[in-house]
Amino acid sequence: MTxxxxxxxxxxGPPPPQYAPAPLxxxxxxxxxxxxxxxxxxxxxxxxxxxxxxxxxxxxSGLSIEFRxxxxxxxxxxxxxxxxxxxxxxxxxxxRFFECVVEAKPRSRLQEWFPQLAWVLGHYRPVG
Length: 128
Prior knowledge:
Blueprint: E1 40-43, E2 47-52, E3 55-60, E4 63-68, E5 72-79, E6 85-92, E7 97-103, H1 108-124
Antiparallel strand pairs: 1-2, 2-3, 3-4, 5-6, 6-7
Protein name: Serine/threonine protein kinase
Region (Disordered): 1-33
């Protein structure tokens, strides 16, 4: 006569509480709806800068990075040395520095971007 063994269970199950993995410190909360507000967009063939109610986003050659306002220590911008591009830098709260350069074609567009960007940044990050 052959013995019948119970079918195997669904696995080992979760680890005991003392061995359970801790939540990741960098895990983000689910995105919250962003209230409407002013925004800024500068785009060229490869790069883009977006500033809106959620924060600042860079896209460079198909790679994107987003910074939420609570993560941002400061935002700086200026014209490139040759005067043909907008350079935007985000200083993260932990001191890291991120930069995106957007070419302005025609060059006069750069002079349009400066007041727009200043106004939008002032709206979300008033000085004082």
